[in-house]
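Lab notebook page, bench 4
Experiment: in silico fold of construct C2
Operator: M.H.
Input chain length: 404 residues
Purpose: comparison with the prior construct
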Amino acid sequence: MLRREDRTGSRPARARRRRGPGLRVRLTLLATGLVAAVSALLLWLGWMLVGEVAASLPTLPPGTPVLVDGVAVPAGEIAAALGHSARAEVLQVGSVAFALVVLAVAVVSWVLTGHVLQPVHDVTATARRLSAESLDARIDLEGPRDEVAELADTFDEMLDRLQAAFDAQRRFVANASHELRTPLAVLRTEIDVTLADPDADVDELRRMAGVLRDATKRAEGLVDGLLLLARTEAAERRASDGDEPVDLDLAAHGALDAVRAEVEGRRLRVEVHPAAEGAVVVGDAALLERVVGNLVENAVRHNVDGGWITVGTDRAGDRVDLVVASSGPVLDPARVPDLFEPFRRGADRVGPGSGLGLSIVRAVVRAHGGTVSAEPVEGGGLSVRVGLPGQVSGSLNTGVTVPT
């Protein structure tokens, strides 16, 4: 729950909250008070009705002897005497019944509220036991599906989401550390080997410099990818920060031009199928162009020599689809969704890369309110389909995030 602060922006409001009676005590007092009020009202009504009934008795002739509780009462005062005696009896018996009813209600209310609030205490106890290392605790409330059970189930579902987020974060940090450790290890090894060689000449130093440059370039690319992924997933920008029309067809041609040398070197056949009605969307131009660039780069890097690449766009109503398909190794359909997770290249995929390309694609597309999916190509390869609204709303959707 978000921390609430007072208007002066000082410490949270709950830090100044006084310790009062618990919910169980308050519910018990409320139920007992209501029953006591109703019982007192009924006792008063009974007292009044008895008096009215006694007053409505028929009068006796004057001088007729009448005994009321062993006391001789004049015939003219018989109604008042009977009313007074009946009211006293009602008040005496009613007071005892009133005390017993209030006491019984207090005990029953205390027991029932304790039973009803026990799941709430379980939720509180579970929350107090939780930490980043012990998110496996669950309430697993059994019994009827009422409001309290719904609260407990909602709390368990929240813990499931938190545990999944923490697990994903741990995996991400571990993978990022592993990826960064590799170029750093190369740098240190090359430097140590060169320094340990007393006969190192200029050619050896140049060779070492080339290895260091490649390692630092890889580390730089990985850091840039991490920063881009963090920026995309956080979506911490406003619409005025750069929403503009982006032509996906032009972006595809630009991405293909950037990898033209590698395409020609690997003898890849490229086909481009632009949309007849145009493929313009609105959003962050840099991020959307990065989506197209990542898909094209993946199609080239994870391809096979002499393979093929197809880039196509299509418009259906207010939706624009971008499809990038390529040849490559045979992929297990069950493992294709995992390729969108950070650092997941797939055991059968070839080529360089940090494994962040499709993760960035998914984060950018979701932030723009679109969808992304992938499926293996028969005979080997991968086809990725991105769907974006033709006119994206002014601000990114910040409800979907991936732990970084």
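Observations: Strands lie at 66-68, 71-73, 243-247, 269-273, 280-284, 308-316, 319-326, 371-376, 382-389. The chain has a mean pLDDT of 76.
Next step: discuss at group meeting.
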